[in-house]
Write a structure and sequence with these properties.
CATH class: Mainly Alpha
Helix content: 25-40%
Shape: globular
CATH superfamily: Winged helix-like DNA-binding domain superfamily/Winged helix DNA-binding domain
Strand order of the largest sheet: 1-8-9-5
Number of helices: 11
Radius of gyration: 20 Å
Number of domains: 1
Order of helices and strands: EHEHEEHEHHEEEEHEEHHEHHEHE
Largest sheet: 4 strands, antiparallel
Number of strands: 14
């Protein structure tokens, strides 16, 4: 168990936690029924930006003199301390762990930054069989998440101000086969789209179980598709998305311009993309909109049509509205 600072732990049963959340946040609603093919996860622009940058590999030009990896754009800045100590940076398994912890927090109405779930439940959600290896992976990934800090443009009263957040509250580990992870309370604040409003999206359960070594881009694709559908709910492009957008979500996939003269687009980019889209077949069916692209230009400028299996009622797409 890792704990950087002592902090009192308060235990609330499900009813008390829900009532406390209701007192603190007016009109808190949650979808009454969600198909087992999906999880509910609270999300915001900053949390989605974090997911897209968290596992990127840092080049020398992205490492500070203090050994921090730094990734930034006009509205989001990510820093990962002691980055060189991490083998190949932060892995997709750590992103999956983070999302599972947020899923559990969402199911508890975001009422307590201390998240707990049994090792058995976590392994079931991830499709893992080897408990010894699962424990090693969780330990490594929790330690990696402890290094994460980010800044984002605030909302509501803090609109356009840069808000600084440490992801971890400094307490994490596995105790008696139960995962413990305390989020920094400011991380929950970063999930708000307004001073007291949250949104969530539905993410396919199967995406967490696909093996990362065989389908390294499947989770990124599933998450980006879920984000796109939620943010465009009710619009004409709700189930249509550009190939370019999906490729940008595939962290660490080779870039076309870096492939050299041979290019190998089919084996290095298009093939893996189509393979990992197909791997999500339990939840989505997809095809290229229009003709099948025959060239790189046609492929990179193509769009895909998505058909979702048992997607939850869009009327229940808000935690708060």
């Amino acid at each position: 168990m890792k704990q950087r600072q002592d902090a009192p732990e308060t235990e609330l049963n499900a009813s008390e936690a829900g009532e406390e959340a209701l007192r603190g946040i007016a009109d808190f609603t949650i979808a009454p029924e969600v198909p087992r093919e999906y999880y509910i996860i609270a999300q915001s622009r900053s949390s989605n930006a974090l997911a897209r940058k968290l596992t990127r590999r840092a080049g020398d030009d992205q490492l500070s003199m203090f050994g921090e990896a730094e990734f930034s754009d006009e509205s989001f800045k990510l820093s990962i301390s002691h980055y060189r100590e991490l083998k190949n940076g932060i892995s997709v398994s750590a992103l999956k762990l983070l999302d599972i912890l947020v899923i559990k927090a969402t199911n508890a109405f975001l009422s307590d930054p201390l998240v707990k779930l049994t090792l058995k439940e976590f392994m079931s959600m991830r499709g893992l069989k080897d408990e010894k290896e699962a424990r090693k992976q969780i330990k490594r990934d929790m330690e990696a998440l402890d290094r994460v800090k980010f800044e984002y443009k605030g909302v509501g009263a803090n609109k356009n101000s840069w808000m600084k957040v440490s992801l971890s509250g400094g307490y994490y580990g596995i105790v008696n086969s139960v995962l413990h992870y305390r989020f920094n309370e400011e991380f929950f604040t970063s999930l708000r789209i307004h001073d007291t409003k949250y949104l969530y999206m539905h993410i396919p359960t199967e995406a967490f179980k696909l093996p990362d070594n065989h389908h390294p881009y499947a989770y990124y694709l599933a998450r980006r598709l879920a984000e796109h559908k939620r943010m465009n709910a009710g619009k004409s492009n709700e189930d249509i998305i550009a190939v370019k957008t999906l490729l940008e979500a595939c962290v660490n996939m080779p870039k076309y311009e870096d492939l050299g003269e041979a290019k190998q687009v089919g084996t290095r980019i298009r093939g893996p993309f189509e393979r990992d889209m197909d791997a999500l077949g339990g939840t989505i069916k997809w095809h290229y909109a229009g003709e099948n692209p025959e060239t790189w230009e046609a492929f990179i400028n193509a769009t895909v049509q998505i058909e979702w299996h048992l997607y939850p009622n869009a009327d229940n797409a808000n935690l708060l509205k």
